[in-house]
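Hey,
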Amino acid sequence: MLEDVTPSSLRRLRRWAPWIVIFGLAAGPAAGMWALAWRIDDIPPELRVTPVPVFTGPTLRIRDGRTNVVAKLEIGDGPALIAPEWSGVVTSVEVSSGDAIATGDPLLSVDRVTRVAVASDMPFHRELGNGSRGRDVEALERLLVALGLFDEEPDEIFTRTTAMAVRAFESTLGVDPPTGVFSPSLVMWMPTEPLVVGEVLVSVGSPVPGAGSAIVRAVPRVISAELVTGEGAPVSFEGDRVLEVEGREVAIISGGSAITDEVAEAIWDSRTPLGSDVAGGAVMIPATLRLPEPVEVWAVASSAVMVDMEGASTCVWVEDGDALIPIDVTPVGGTLGVTDLRGPLAGLRVLVNPLEILPDPACP
């Protein structure tokens, strides 16, 4: 047979040999895969490996829904007590940083005459004496009532009785002799009370500051506040939650990230933020939210929890004799690989692998 091979046929064989090898290398694996697939399809059903339903009983746990959040407070300058028209030398200072000032509290003395704090709707701006009328007269009489120096119903008319009460007021401050004429320089107006002192801007022995200058500046105040996550996203929840700062209960708040001024002030007062917490007027205070009362939940493997096609309802599949039925549940939290649920799961066996077992595991 070799005798039939001619030189020209050998040359053609050499030219096509590489392509024959390449075709064999490419087609061989494909053919092998086809053969393997044919053999797998040919395996009898009784020899194939099929998924096995895995069941587990849910674990009862007590949860308080504790979540770490951040109270983001925007801080601004506190109000100041402003110097009136006066003159003299500061002879004593009666307040210091951290003091809470209310109406009637002494602030300082000028030429040995005490000046007191007064919270009212408006500052006093003129002298008041016999015959004076107006809302500021009524405000003065309310002050005198609060100080126990006037026992009539306040009105807008300055009478002889008012003058007598003013003389008593002057005497308590060290005015000698008392005149019975009220001078606005005897009081420092406060827009609110109590006012917590942040900084005292006068000192003993110095001339009194000019009219309109700050004498005392209150601690910084909260302008706005909200609860955010550690990444800065707003916090949302339904129902009530207890807000804690440094392990202390601060307030009970209702769903949403916005918080009231009262709660914001309570957060601000609950701790002294570190310098590193402040950035451009914002103070970030670590806090915790929890449920008012702990609740019982059922912990199951997260793989057991299914939803419907719209994602509106949640269920788990449980054993019911030889059948599987869905039970509606409500997710309330969880940890890695475990979901906490509310629902009637006591005594039931939950299917852990519905995706492997059911042709349509979505909640009905």
